[in-house]
Amino acid sequence: MRLARIVLLGLVCSLARPAAAQDRVFQITPYLWGIGVGGTVRPLAGGPSLKFKEGLSDILKDLDSAFFLSGLFRQGRFVVLADYSGSRSSRDGTVPGLGLPVTGRLEQSSLTLAAGWRALSSERATVDYLVGLRHWDIEARARTPVPGLAGGLSVDFTDPIIAARTNIRLNDRWSVIGYADLGGFGAGSDWTAQLYATVNLKLRDRLFVSAGYRHLTVDYDEGGPGFDATFSGPILGISLQF
Questions:
Q1: pLDDT at 37
Q2: What angle do CA 169, 128, 163 make, to 5 degrees?
Q3: Which residues are CB-neighbours of 212 under 8 A, at least 6 positions away?
Q4: CB-side neighbour CA atoms (13 Å) of 195
Q5: What is the 8-class DSSP label of residue 190?
Q6: Are 16 and 242 in contact (CB under 8 A)?
Q7: Which CATH number fits the domain that encloses residue 131?
Q8: Residue 234 and residue 230: Cα distance in Å, rounded?
Q9: Which domain holds residue 90?
Q10: Is the dihedral of CA 115, 117, 122, 124 positive or negative?
């Protein structure tokens, strides 16, 4: 998780170096994500599965830490996107069918890097097509009073993704951004997908505030241990352009 942050911040620093060309844009966006979590963690084959289904109020109660940051670089029609999201939470539950108490902890991070081409660029709209990678780092622990039923899952894997992004300008101050990606294809996870949409307001030159909704899902199964989860909720961010 710490390594993923270093990689993203390194990319941010390298892209932020002098921009002599007029048609070059670098943007960095720290943001808040009100995550709701749903899914299942299965640390061991035959062991307990800890089910997560929590809204924002529950997440805030169980959340230990979180960090979210995204960046964009464009040179002419060439576009690079980067996003890091990470969180750690813990909660108590029960073993399905047995009613035994379970104490669980989930720590996850995802780092998405994608590059592509601006296929459409007009006064009112842009459309980007991208390919890239999403790296997951997941650690889950489930503990019960019964020996042999406790276990842990610690995996990291990388998924290929294909993505599309559009920015529709409503007027000089307001715009709408939509993004979608799909990946996995058995290379890392069985599949992963992400959708988000934001409404954006230009506060001043090179300063924007955005609000919207984001949905991120992953389904990973290595024939025993498994992780199947969705992360969804409202997002609020501030973007600075250089």
A1: 74
A2: 120
A3: 177, 196, 197, 198, 199, 234, 235
A4: 5
A5: S
A6: yes
A7: 2.40.128.90
A8: 14
A9: 2-241
A10: negative
Average model confidence (pLDDT) across the chain: 80
Q: Report residue 126 as tokens.
A: 């842009």
> For residue 199, what are the β-bridge partners?
176, 211
**Which residues lie below 8 Å from residue 215, measured CB to CB, with a gap of 6+?**
194, 195, 196, 230, 231, 232
pLDDT value, residue 228: 84
Spans of the chain below 50 pLDDT = 1, 3-4, 6-21
Q: Provide the token pair at 77.
A: 């029609």
pLDDT at 12: 44
Structure tokens at 75: 């040179």
- Structural domain tally of the chain? 1
User: For residue 138, what are its two tokens?
Assistant: 């997941």
Q: Would you state the structure tokens that stand for residue 79, as one six-digit string?
A: 């576009």
Provide the token pair at 53: 């289904």
The CA radius of gyration of the chain, in Å to the nearest whole number, is: 19
**Number of residues assigned to the chain:** 242
Q: Where are the alpha helices (DSSP H) in the chain?
A: 2-15, 56-62
Q: What is the pTM of this model?
A: 0.78
Per-residue tokens: 186: 């058995």
- Measured in degrees and rounded to the nearest 5, phi and psi for residue 127 equal -135, 125
